[in-house]
Design brief:
The C terminus is likely disordered. This protein starts with a helix and ends with a helix. It is mostly beta strands.
Length: 357
C-alpha cells in the first residue's frame, strides 16, 4: 500500500473514531436484558429452554441487574482519571459519562474489572494485592459523583455501543457493541460479551464479541466456556502485613463480666481481623462473641465468667492466618467483688436449705 493510501486510511479511521486494534482498556460485557424480562426469557422459575439462566452476581432476576456494562484494564499501571465513556443507541450519541479525578483511577493494574452500574452502589475496596480485582461505580442522577459523574445512562438491545476517550479526548477504544460486532442479534433477553481472553490483541470489531442468553458475569470473568485472566494479571508480591496487640498485653488483672478494650495496631491489612482469647496460656483458643467486624484497631470484649491466672488474647488476619500477634505475657481474670458476694449468698442459701432438710 502506498504512503498516500495508508495516510488516507488512517485519516478515515480517525474521523470515524473506530479503534480496530487492541487498546489499554476494552469493553468486556454489557446487559441488554429488558427491565421486564429475564436472561434467556421465560419467568422467574425457568428460562425459555427450561434452564436457569442467571448472572453470577445478581442471580436470576427480572432485568438481570439493570443498566450496567463492564470494562477490563489491559495496560498495567493505567491512569484513567477524567476519561470519558461515550454511550450510543441506534448510532446516536446518547450520553457521555466522565470519570472523576479520584485517586482510585490513578494506578489500575492489568486485569482489573470495572463495572459501571446505574442501580448498584459504588464499591472501591479494590486491592489486587489481596485478590480483589473489581471496582464498581454507580452512575446515577442521584449518585454521589465521587468516581463518575452523577448521570443516569441507558443500556439496551438497540445497537448499543461504547466508545472510550482519554483525558485529551482521543479515542482509545471503540465504538464497540452491537452493530459493530456482531452486526446484529443482541435481543432483549441477552447480554453482549467477549468470548475470548481479554488482551491487547482484541480490537473493537473483534468477531469474538457475541450474544449470550445462558449466563452473565457482572464483575467477574465471562462464561460461555471460560474466560481466563491468567496471562493478563501480574503476579503481585504480597504486601507487607503486621499486627501488634497493644492491650491486654500482659500482667493486667481483669474482672470477669467487665467490658474491656482489646486493642491492636496493623499495617498492610484491609481485611477483617479475628479476635480470640485463651484461658490456659495459649493451649486452646476461643473466638470472641459477637465476632469482630472489620479492622478498627479495637474491640469491646466481655471478659468471660471464669477465673484464669494465665489468659491471653490473639488478633489475626482472616485471610492470612500467618499474620497475627498475641499478648506478650499472660494476664489474670478474677471474680469481681459483686460476683463474690453473689456466690457467698448462694452458698449461704444452699447451706440453709441443707440444714432445713
Amino acid at each position: 500500500m502506498s504512503v498516500s493510501r495508508m495516510t488516507a486510511v488512517l485519516i478515515v479511521l480517525t474521523l470515524f473514531g473506530v479503534n480496530v486494534w487492541g487498546a489499554d482498556i476494552i469493553l468486556n460485557e454489557y446487559n441488554a436484558v429488558d427491565s421486564n424480562d429475564f436472561l434467556g426469557g421465560g419467568d422467574a422459575s425457568a428460562d425459555e429452554s427450561g434452564g436457569r439462566a442467571s448472572d453470577s452476581y445478581f442471580g436470576r432476576v427480572r432485568g438481570n441487574g439493570g443498566d450496567w456494562f463492564e470494562l477490563v484494564v489491559i495496560k498495567d499501571h493505567l491512569d484513567i482519571r477524567s476519561w470519558q465513556l461515550d454511550i450510543y443507541e441506534d448510532g446516536i450519541l446518547d450520553e457521555t459519562l466522565t470519570l472523576t479525578a479520584n485517586s482510585i483511577w490513578k494506578d489500575l493494574r492489568a486485569g482489573t474489572i470495572i463495572t459501571v452500574s446505574e442501580d448498584l452502589p459504588s464499591d472501591v475496596s479494590y486491592d489486587p494485592n489481596a485478590g480483589d480485582w473489581w471496582i464498581n461505580v454507580q452512575a446515577n442522577n442521584n449518585g454521589d459523583g465521587l468516581y463518575i459523574e452523577k448521570s443516569s445512562f441507558p443500556v439496551s438491545s438497540s445497537n448499543w455501543q461504547l466508545r472510550i476517550r482519554n483525558i485529551a479526548g482521543q479515542v482509545v477504544f471503540g465504538p464497540a457493541g452491537e452493530g459493530i460486532s456482531p452486526a446484529g442479534g443482541i435481543s432483549g433477553t441477552e447480554v453482549f460479551r467477549l468470548e475470548d481472553n481479554p488482551s491487547d490483541t482484541v480490537p473493537a470489531n473483534s468477531t469474538d464479541y457475541d450474544d449470550g442468553d445462558d449466563f452473565s458475569t457482572f464483575g467477574s470473568p465471562n462464561r460461555w466456556g471460560s474466560q481466563s485472566f491468567s496471562k493478563l494479571r501480574p503476579i503481585l508480591a504480597p504486601a507487607a502485613a503486621t499486627l501488634t496487640v497493644l492491650a491486654p498485653n500482659g500482667d493486667e488483672t481483669l474482672a470477669m463480666a467487665d467490658v474491656v478494650d482489646v486493642s491492636w495496631e496493623s499495617e498492610g491489612i484491609s481485611e477483617t481481623v479475628r479476635v480470640e482469647f485463651s484461658i490456659d496460656n495459649g493451649y486452646s483458643w476461643t473466638e470472641v462473641y459477637p465476632p469482630n467486624v472489620g479492622n478498627t484497631g479495637t474491640y469491646k470484649w466481655l471478659v468471660p465468667l471464669v477465673d484464669a491466672p494465665q489468659a491471653l488474647v490473639r488478633v489475626s488476619s482472616t485471610t492470612r492466618p500467618a499474620v497475627y500477634d498475641m499478648s506478650d505475657k499472660s494476664f489474670t481474670i478474677v471474680g469481681s467483688p459483686m460476683a463474690s458476694d453473689v456466690m457467698s449468698f448462694f452458698d449461704l442459701a444452699l447451706l440453709a436449705s441443707t440444714w432445713l432438710n
